[in-house]
Amino acid sequence: MASKLHIKKGDLVFVNSGESKGQQGRVLSVVIKDSRAIVEGVNMVSKHTKPNAKHPQGGIIKKEAPVHISNLMLIDPTSGKATRIGRRLNDKGKLVRFSKKSGEEIK
Questions:
Q1: DSSP 3-state of 38
Q2: Tell me: the pLDDT tens digits for 35-67?
Q3: Against a cut of 0.70, is the pTM above it?
Q4: Which of 9, 60, 68, 83 could form a disulfide with 101 if both were Cys (CB 3.0 to 4.6 A apart)?
Q5: How far apart are CA 42 and CA 64, in angstroms?
Q6: Contact 36, 104 (CB under 8 A)
Q7: CA distance 52 to 57
Q8: Domain-wise residue ranges, the chain
Q9: How far is residue 88 CA from its own chain's centroid?
Q10: Rounded CA gap, 18 and 54, in Å?
Q11: DSSP label at residue 71
């Protein structure tokens, strides 16, 4: 059983390590089993494809490869800078994520 991850689909994240260091983008999907996420426009790889219905020409297409979750940081909604994430109960008793920098709740 994998632990709870600090990143969800649709989050705006900053890449703090690796080939794409310094880039930011929106999370397209999260692979919980491998603790990886696919981020829009980050960690692009060239994939050789045979002709098919989607790509009748075939050839080389650029696509995003998964990035390990540990190399991603959420972007604080108030300051626009990368921040760590905490969890706490809100006033309704629901567990929510919050920014360690601003203390702001993350929707």
A1: strand
A2: 999 999 999 999 999 999 988 999 999 999 999
A3: yes
A4: 83
A5: 6
A6: no
A7: 8
A8: 12-52+59-106
A9: 21
A10: 31
A11: G
